[in-house]
Amino acid sequence: MPEFKNILVPIDGSANSKRAIAHAGYLAEKCGAKLSVLHVINTFAQVSAFSDANTGLYIPDRVVEDIQEAGQAVIDQALSLLPQDVEAQNFIEIGSPTEVIVNYCKKDHYDVIVMGSRGLGIIKELIMGSVSSAVVYYAPCPVLIVK
Hints:
CATH superfamily: HUPs
Radius of gyration: 15 Å
Distance between the termini: 24 Å
CATH class: Alpha Beta
Oligomer: single chain
Shape: globular
Strand content: 15-25%
Number of strands: 5
Number of domains: 1
Helix content: 40-55%
Order of helices and strands: EHEHHEHEHHE
Structural class: alpha/beta
């Protein structure tokens, strides 16, 4: 029987992400595991919503601060969904979600990743692919996908 002591929970604020944090909290409580809640800011996606982003685009400090504040709000909401006796740390990173999640898992040797099945809109997912599908493929540990 696998032993889960270190759980990574990537979140994006979507409904599936909220269900994933609830499942991860339950699992952590039952296993006595620690949680790491990770929100990845995909700056290209964030900025391209406002402009025609391309490589070399200067992003004003205030825009980065606003994006990070929004990311912290996502983290705070997720942490509020956890049972009180579950130990959780949180991280906000900037980059490609799949790459950041897989690298975190490899670097800190997580036992399992618990994440939502879809955070993107259906059209974007068809074009870009699902982050959860890519994480399942590249992660060095089991991945629990929550619908």
